[in-house]
Design a protein that fits this description.
338 residues; alpha/beta; nine-stranded mixed beta sheet
Amino acid sequence: MLNLGIIGTGMMAGVICESCRSADINVISVLSRNISTAYEFCNKHGIGEKNGFINAELFFSEQTLDAVYIATPTSEKEQFLRYCLKYNKHALIEKPLPNTLSMFELLQEADTKGLVWLDAAHFIHTSWYKMLDALIIDKVGIVDRVEASFIWPDMNKEHIKFNPLLEPDGVMGDLGWYPLRLISKFVAIERVKQKSFITLLDDRAAIIEMHVSGYTDDDIAFSGTASYRGSVVRQQFEISGNLGRLIINDFVMPYCGSFVYGNLLPDMSIKIEHGMKPLLDSESIKISLPERQHITMLRDFSNYIHKLDVGTLKTLQFECRRTMLLSKLIRENSSIDC
């Protein structure tokens, strides 16, 4: 059984800790900024208080610790990945990953040392994502358009995600990681020949909306949106080609298996449209998730550490790196509206 330590004590740290039992992972320790928060987390989740730490060296030097889940603000993720490299610990890293040159170098060093790392994007572990390549071949054909959006209404109440010092990419890193990660499966930044990137800032300089669009030299048009503005949640993915179009309306947090919605519906639905009468010339594929997707993510992470399905791990890491590069390109080339 994999022994996991958790860095951070926020909401996602709690969700992951509670889910580890279902994924056959043993949470043995937690690292926090202050000892009272560490003890509170330990007591809530059945971890002995002696395994609550505020000293990173002591936390990482535990010999039975196999891997860590890094659930800290983005500004702190590099320092903890450096500890992983120093103490030979595998890392599941909450999104977004910093799009800095130094982060790319740390990930390369992890690869060289044979350490597993992965961004904690839940949807990439679901059955629909694992069957996406086959669906594209059968139902989409040659891809010519990719569109993805995630809108989750929220307000700046001084939460960490609205703090530009802790989360410099704002909504682009928080919600935007998901559409950008899907787009990056099909789009490499070196092939982008036309682009338009717009970010909207609030009065505290936090990025609260992102719109990206572009066109590649291999004829793929792409667009992505992430926003805290609005009143209705949107989490939609569409991909089109010469054979047809796939549409998923809850790709980030499915109503049949997310930590937010739980199991409100029996399954997910992929709508397939084609021809000049898409409302008529259509079909739906129902996909049931055997467990909530974040549990599957933890199970997959453990399997990758145990050298199972190495090919899939390398593919997901490749797509993650492309997402980081696309995020960097957006930050460096966006028009900013304050």
